[in-house]
Structure formats: structure tokens, C-alpha cells
Amino acid sequence: xxxxxxxxxxxxTLIAFLLFANFSQAQFIRSGQIEFEVKTNLRKSxxxxxxxxxxxxxxxxxxxxYYQFEFNDQKSVYRFDRWENKEAIxxxxxxxxxxxxxYTDHAKGQVDMRKDVFxxxxxxxxxxxxxxxxxxxxxxxxxxxxxRKAVGKIMDSxxxxxxxxxxxxxxxxxxxxxxxxxxxxxMTIPRLYASWMATKVNTEKTxxxxxxxxxxxxxxxxxxxxxxxxxxxxxxxxxDPESGKWIQLMIWNVLI
Length: 256
Hints:
The protein is α+β, with helices and mostly antiparallel strands. It has helices spanning about 5-25, 40-45, 50-55, 95-100, 220-230, 245-255, and strands spanning about 30-40, 60-70, 75-85, 100-105, 110-115, 120-125, 130-140, 145-155, 160-165, 185-190, 195-200.
């Protein structure tokens, strides 16, 4: 039998606390910066209308952008950083990326998204979207972190295939993806013909998340969707069933 006096018990308690604190600090990350490579199949995302087919030959197959995700405790900001090859992409296909920014308060479950749709700026202020997640047993290493695969469904029919790590505590990801027990470091959304992959994780950087600047007018997801539909009336060719699909794709991109 092991016995100890009061002072000895206090010393053991202090040692155990320090060991646990050091373990927690070493294993779990609460603040930092993550770089994402975002790759979109530009030609497929345009659909197959007559207009799109005529444009495709003038564009690269993929557009590749880099975004920065900064986080501190339960707040994050995700924004465009740079292009891999800016000159290869027409300005019309760059604006929505370059002006996109997401401010998220994960504790409150709120997101403030700034989006651009063909020159029109939207500030979408709403709760984080509901995502129905199912965890799998598939694993992979991304940017040096062990990640587990999860499959989610958003906006009723859009599937998200994500890999998250529980070593980074914030339950977030690129855009407004959230709700897993850790940070999403890699994902694909087939219906958007796009993938997001973390290339760097910097935990040495001191991150301060600033508040989003107020806008003159805000939308929620529902009003933003209806406004885009109203603004794009007459843009599709009624004789071409494929011509309207890119409008739905654009709405998904705005709301995600």
C-alpha cells in the first residue's frame, strides 16, 4: 500500500496538473494560420450551354487560388490570398474569389460572408448552415496532421467529402463548412467541381481576429438566393436546358 502525507499529496496533484497542461498544450492547437489551395475545374463549372462551350476554349481547365484561414479560439476569418496564375484567368472569373471573405464566430454559430456576384457585392449575415455529417473509418495525413474522413450534406443535396483533424480544436473549415470535432484540412465538393487542400499550417503566428466592417445592407441566405435569381432573370436561354444550371451553381457558391 502506498501512503503519503498532505504535502506529498499536494505535490503530486501539482505535478499531475502541470503534466496535463503541457500535454494539452502540445497536442491541441487553438490559434494559428492555415493556407489552402483551392482548385476548381473552371470548364465544368460553366456547364454545357452554347455560350459556355464557346467560352471554354479561351479558358484554362482549372483555376487555382490560395486562401488563408486564421483562427483564435472560437473565431476565424477565411479570405482570398493569391492566384497561382492570375494572367490565365479572365477577370470575370476572378472577382468572386478575390472579394470573398468569411468571418465566423463558432461559439455563437454565426457567419458573416462577403461575396461578389458579377460586380454586385453581398453581405450575407446568418447562422452557420446545418450540415448532416457521417464519420467514416478512412484516414489520411494532410499538412502533417492525421485526419479522419467525414461525409456531409448541405443545402439538401450538395455533398461534402471532408478530412478533419482533432489536433486543431476549432470546429471549422474553408468557407462556412463546420460542425466536425476539429478543423477540416481537406475537402471536395463534387457539385461545385472544387477541392480545398491545406498546404501549410502555422501555429507560431500570433493571430488576432478583427470584427467585420458593417455594411449598408445585409442578406440572409434565403434573401440572397432570391435576389440572385431575380437579377439573373433572362440570362439563360429557354431553348437550351443546360444554360440555367450555372445559375444554380453560382447560388451554391454564394451560400456555402
